[in-house]
Amino acid sequence: MLELSPSQGRALAQGPHFGGAFGGLGVSTAANKCKVPCQQFQTCQDIAKGVCCVPVPREEIAYVTCTYRNTCIEKPDFLATIDLDPCSSCYGQVIHRLFMPNLGDELHSFGLSDPCVCPDNCGTRWNKLIVPGLISSRIYVVDLACQCRAPRVCKIIPPECVFWTCDKGYLNVPRQLPCGDVLIANVGDPAGNSKGGFVVLDGQNFELKGNWEKDCESPAGGYQFWFQPCLDVLISTSGFALNVVGRGFCPDDLKKGVFGRNIYVWNLSCRRVIQCIDLGEDSLPLSVKFLHNRNAAEGYVSCALSGVIYRFCKCQASRDCWEVEEVIRIPDKEVKNWIMPRMPAFIVDIVISPDDRFLYVSNWWHGDVRQYELTRGCKPRLVGQVFVGGSIVRCGPVAVCRDEELKCQPEPLVVKCRRVYGGPSRLQLSRDGKRLYVTTSFYSAWDRQFYPDMVREGAVMVLIDVDTERGGLTVNKDFLVDFGKEPCGPCLANAIHFPCGDATTEVFS
Question: What burial class does residue 318 get, using C-beta atoms within 10 Å of its C-beta: 0-12 exposed, 13-18 middle, 19+ buried?
Fold first, then answer.
């Protein structure tokens, strides 16, 4: 494992162009000092009681993973730092680029780690980012403590260590466990065959400790996970076989076991699967979230290919048994000039607001972002919807023949004179629940297949303003991060996180 001293990291990050081995394309503006205010986190107990903490400061920067894989541009992936301060002259711009030292990583998901309480005890900040390469299986540890506006790579775990130590590869979502260790979900084995489970990093030195699951076979598939320490439970989803879908989506792969169908319930302390729940053939469950209330034995899981969202909850009759209920179904659309005669709702991501009032859904193929109101004992109610690109926009190549929801095809989205290509993929919600950030890239091989215009013109990040009182979504026409204007050429943007925490990062005391 390669470890860098602070001086080496700074020297490499300041090098010309790619900055040597670990470069950072010269940053620019306001990269010398971290001025992001500390974040005051509401506890889930406060949320459950309706108690409001001191006002949550607005996020001032965001980190976004960007890749050049499958774009015909031979450049390394990078972590972009975005200015989110409306009072800044650089608002909505990339103010720093931390380039990785290797080609073809496909930076996809990443996670915050190593939280600390600020000196005045007014909140929590995060000191590290764990950034795995989905395709390379390489793990980067990025330091935020010195300069959160100009982060640097401080450690690299090479893929060979992951292959030899864990017999796993294709790493996706990392999350920090309550004990401080970092859990990373894997999608496959070293050959790209579907294989679930987790690898774990030491929370102090970020050394690879090995496999997390204890004395049991790994599940058949893996992609994302979420856990509730108070309930001693973890739930993971199953993804796809990357050695197959890496060539693109093919309808002939349906009904062949390429796409996952199960979610797995784990005993968190014993590190064993205690239940496997089948959600249907080729349903492809990807995103899973518990409610933020740590005492709530309830959450939601979205199935990409079936367009269904299930509520899962603990059975009252059994201590260790969980059950699911279908609560949302987005209907297919009958289409022409597409890869199949029916276009399903491809749900990439779901996010739950910090107060557990709203569920947000990204529909990558149809192109809409949805807001559902969550009420205990009732099915979620659709209260907001906007279109952010997608495959069914008017005057596009796809014609909709029959649609159970829409009377006509939506208009293309144009923000700041820039047409948005691609569809809504990854979501991130501010801690006050009022701003929803959306990127448009899902996975580079599928981006190239379904949205070649986005690969040519670059992905974007847009901002959706949220009505937290009555519900409702509005695209903010004054904000756009255009990744088509990158100095090295148009790139694809994916996951989003804020250094002082967000709606998909929990703090466990």
Answer: exposed
Q: How far apart are the first and last CA of the chain?
A: 30
Please, how many CA atoms are within 13 Å of residue 272, restricted to the half-sphere of its CB?
6
Distance CA 460, CA 453 (A): 12
List strands edge to edge, sheet with 78-83.
Answer: 24-25, 94-99, 78-83, 61-67, 492-497
Which H or E run includes 438? strand 435-439
Amino acid at site 55: P
Structure tokens, 471: 């519900």
Q: Residue 488's closest CA among 99, 213, 60?
A: 99
Burial class of residue 5 (count of CB atoms within 10 Å of its CB; 0-12, 13-18, 19+): exposed
| Alpha carbon distances (Å) from 54 to 40, 43, 184, 300, 466 | 7, 12, 33, 29, 20
Q: Which two tokens stand for residue 14?
A: 């300041």
* C-beta neighbour count of 250 within 10 angstroms: 13
Phi-psi region of 20 (alpha: psi -120 to 50; beta: other; left: phi over 0): left
104 neighbors 136 (Cβ within 8 angstroms): yes
Strand pairing class (225-228; 208-211): unpaired
User: Phi then psi for 244, rounded to 5 degrees?
Assistant: -105, -55
Nearest 5°: the CA angle 265, 269, 270 is 75
H or E element at residue 309: strand 308-314
Positions in the chain short of pLDDT 50: 1, 3-45, 47-52, 120-121, 509
Q: Considering the entire predicted model, what is its pTM?
A: 0.90
Task: Give me the amino acid identity at 121.
Answer: N
Question: What pLDDT score does 364 carry?
Answer: 98
